[in-house]
Amino acid sequence: MSTHEHNYSSNHNGTLWFVHDCTLQLDLGYRRIALFLLYLLIFMLGLLENALVVWVNWRRRHSANGVLFCIINMSLSDLMVIVILPFFMMEVTLDHVWLWGRFLCKITNLIFIVNFYSSTFFLAFMTLERYLSLTRPSYPAFFPVVGRRRWMLCGGLWVFSFFLALIENIHVDVLEWDEPGCYMMPENNMVEWFVSVAFLGLIFQFLGPAVVIITCNVLIARAVKTAPDVQERRDVWVVHVYSLVFIMCWLPYHIITILIMINDIDPFLFSCNTVEFTYFSFSVVHTLSLFHCVANPILYNFLSKSFRNNLINTVVNYIPREVTMGQAGAGNQPSAPSGGRGDPGKQRKLSNTSTSQSDVGS
């Protein structure tokens, strides 16, 4: 994450007019503290939320519909990157000094970039699957309940994410300057590699998925609004929140990346203050983009009545039978949960018009 910062400082040491033109004073110490606290918050919340999502939904993975299958894979992807966050927390604390060797340098970066792509891919396919299940029930699902197609498409998305990550990771290594650091530093054509990696991320991780996610969510909201059997439409706004959260997490990161990419191509295009602020902001927006690991479980699971009921039922199953029987005997007969067994027609109606992603086919 500090590669561009190092390149900037090393490539412009000889340009005295450029250095003297800088008047912007930025506190790197406060940034390290802020980044450490952000990493810590994302680690604690993301680990708890995504672990619960996988724990509750994993037992239904074979019979669940395509939407829930994508949710499981997306949470697994987010869990992968959350597990390696302690390394980044310590790296930030030590001012980008890497003390854990070449192997962990390459592995942690590979996991991070695989999540960078795979989480967004599964989010886009989940939104598309959701749109098709609501508006075209007879259309064949991308992730059918049974058959090889589900696993082949799922494996294909993971392999494609790994391939895109490998393009960057092949040049990641521990480099010794004043202190060891984990950087992506190609030996030749440095600028071309940085621009290529940034461009691939912009196209495959942001622009392509954004078109699918925003378009499908707009169509879903329109379909739910016009559904004749829906009495309450207050949850329609949640669909637009899905798109808004995706844009808020990733747009600042890609804007800063584009500015860095332009500066790599033409180092004298921007003023010194602009360049200083751009590189200073890169680590911040890079960390803030990880809030998708916290927001996705809330939006696509915890807002769903179906998920909350399954969470309660899963927890109850792990409570000793004597405790549950004693509580049932002390009170009235327990009533069936709102998302449990009820009128099948009513359940299907709610499923077809719900704006919650994990309510489909529950």
UniProtKB/TrEMBL annotation:
Parts of the chain that traverse the membrane: 33-55, 67-90, 110-128, 149-167, 193-220, 241-262, 282-303
Membrane association type: Multi-pass membrane protein
Chain residue ranges for the region called Disordered: 328-362
The organism of origin for this protein: Mastacembelus armatus
Entry similarity comment: Belongs to the G-protein coupled receptor 1 family.
Residue intervals of the G-protein coupled receptors family 1 profile domain: 49-300
Localization annotation: Cell membrane
Keyword Transmembrane helix applies: yes
Example GO biological process: negative regulation of hematopoietic stem cell differentiation
Keyword hit for Transmembrane helix: yes
A matching Pfam family: 7tm_1
Keywords: Cell membrane, G-protein coupled receptor, Membrane, Receptor, Transducer, Transmembrane, Transmembrane helix
Broad class of the protein's primary localization: membrane
Name this protein carries in UniProt: G protein-coupled receptor 182
GO cellular component: plasma membrane
Gene Ontology molecular function, alphabetical: G protein-coupled receptor activity
Biased composition (Polar residues): 350-362
